[in-house]
Automatic annotation (TrEMBL):
Region annotation Disordered: where it falls in the sequence: 118-139
Signal peptide (residue range): none
Protein name: EF-hand domain-containing protein
Basic and acidic residues bias spans: 128-139
Species per Swiss-Prot/TrEMBL record: Allomyces macrogynus (strain ATCC 38327) (Allomyces javanicus var. macrogynus)
Amino acid sequence: MASTNYRVLGAKYPQLNTELEHLIQQFNAFDVNEEGSIDKSEVMSVVRGLHQFSFDQIQQGMQAVRTNDEGRVDFDEYLDTVAKLKDSKLNAAAARASHSSGGVPASASPAHKKIIIKGTAQNTTHTINEDERGRAVAT
């Protein structure tokens, strides 16, 4: 693969900063012909090897991977895929944390008297005020 500009990649993928060098090495290990692309199954192997994502998360992430005409994944798409998986994992963790704290974010202002409830399906967010909450609890 051509020379890698870590600073540019680090700026584009800040969520991968600590793993960027490892991800590049893994990509290059599979890109034995130095064509700048690897097979989709090889992307799955790299992502599985990170031990950060569940099988379902990997499967879902791999469905969105764009391939070239030969069915291979180029370097940018490879990094995009890992970054999206990492973002979705962080978002899921934040949603679980919000849910376990009763759905009320710590930054909610009591002056507004709104309660934010985040659903787990499709990252849905609902906002209700205290009056609506009282009616929902009473029914």
